[in-house]
Structures are given as structure tokens and as C-alpha cells.
Amino acid sequence: MRVVILDSEQEVSQRAANLICELVGSKPDAVLGLATGGTPLGTYRELVDRCQTGQISFSTTTTFNLDEYVGLDADHPQSYRSFMRQNLFEPGDFNFDRCHLPAGCSRDLSQACQSYEAEIVDAGGIDLQLLGIGTDGHIAFNEPGSSLASRTRVKALTEQTRTDNARFFDSLDQVPTLAITMGIGSILDARHIVLLAMGAGKASAVRAFVEGPITAQVPASALQLHPRVTVLLDQAAASWLVRRDYYQHVENIQRQLEQSEEPA
Ligand code: GLP
Asked: What's the whole-model pTM score?
């Protein structure tokens, strides 16, 4: 795991946007795995800005979102489809036909989950998967206890997650109790995983998944098994890490190596 500790939320967002733009710049038909929540919003603003100023185009990029609430119409303002349209797909130049989210309103949810997995395979797999993390260590909607080999399926949300996400709704009662989510096994199939965490509220979950044991009780800890994970943190989210000085030392060396490899 490459743990990168940055000075501010803005730097985290810019670094994540850099990674996405480097990929899409060299591979315009790249497949991106995308996340919702407050965490990636700064990254999406950065991508939209670069797109609107002609620095990058996403017109041939394919996207797959991690998850979608069950029971909210696609046009419901709090559906993840609406979130993505509003914050990235519409202000960016994404081709909606290439933007995929699980069908949370399907009559056959199990079939919808299987189809989603098949669509990702048909697209050639995910090149870069963006992730946030829940305060209890969940990724996507893989709540604690999720199988580390799980695939896309319906999950019941914990009260903690519903409470955390209630800020996007008028009241807690309106937060759905179920979601379709890519599984931990599905996420681990991505070729590069970029997890972002900002703020003191994420410090405990970050400590647990970076430095704790691999356990289904902390779903993000499964990322320790993946060969290419970049963890971008602000100072507050990194504040509980015991080995933070070492990560910063490694990062300094890594950057020197990268600079020496750049053409003169
Ligand atoms: C939800 C999403 C996750 C996200 C998490 C954290 O549960 N399904 O993908 O990582 O919220 O959200 P936030 O970034 O708002 O803290």
C-alpha cells in the first residue's frame, strides 16, 4: 500500500484528480470505478474544472459506480445516479451511455447484480477504482462482516451507515435500508485502487484498515491483499497512524525516484 499524507483536503482531491487524468490522458477509453459520498466531491470538482478548461476529455471513458440504493427511482434526488449526474457526468463531458450504476429499482435484484458483474467483465475490467471509506471501515456498502471474496449483491445497511448518510436526506427515515453494492472481491479485481480519506472522523477507520489485521470486521483491510493501492489522506485522517513518519519517509524517497526517472 502506498500511503500518501497530504497537507489539506484540497491536495488530496488534486492528487486523486491527477491520477485519474494521467490514466485517461494515456488511455482515453479507460474504465473508471467511481464512488459517491462527500469524500470524492472535491476530486469531481477538479475533474469538471479540467474538463471545462479543455485539459481532459471523458467522452470515451467508461464508468462503473460502486453502489446504488435499493428502491429509489433513478431520478430520485438522493439516488447515486442523480448524485453522479449532478456532480460529474453532466458538468463533465461524459457519455451517459458509458456510465453504469447498479439497477437499484430492478424487479429482479439478483439478476441486476449478476448483470452488473458481467458488464464490468465485458468492458475489460476496471483500470482505476476510486474509494472512500465509512466510519466503520466499510467500502462501497460492504458493511463489517462482509465476505472478503464477495461479489455484487444486495446488502442491508447498518444503522451507523444510515445515520452517517442521513445528512443527504430530509430525515433518517428516508434513508433506504438496502443497497446493491459491488463486493469486496469485485473491488479487488480493479487494476489500481485509490482510496481517499479526509477529516478526523475517518482516523480510526484508516488506522484499522492500514495497520490492523485483515478482517471482515474492517472491510477496507482487504485492500492489504491488493498489489496496487494508493491511500491519499489529509493530516487529520492520518493522525492515528502509528507509522506515519515511516510512510512520509517512503513517500519522499518515492518522489525522488520518480523525479530522477523523468526525462531531463
Ligand atoms: C457511503 C458510500 C461509500 C462511501 C461512504 C463514506 O456509505 N456507499 O462508498 O465511501 O459512504 O461517505 P463519505 O465520503 O460521505 O464520508
From this structure: 0.96
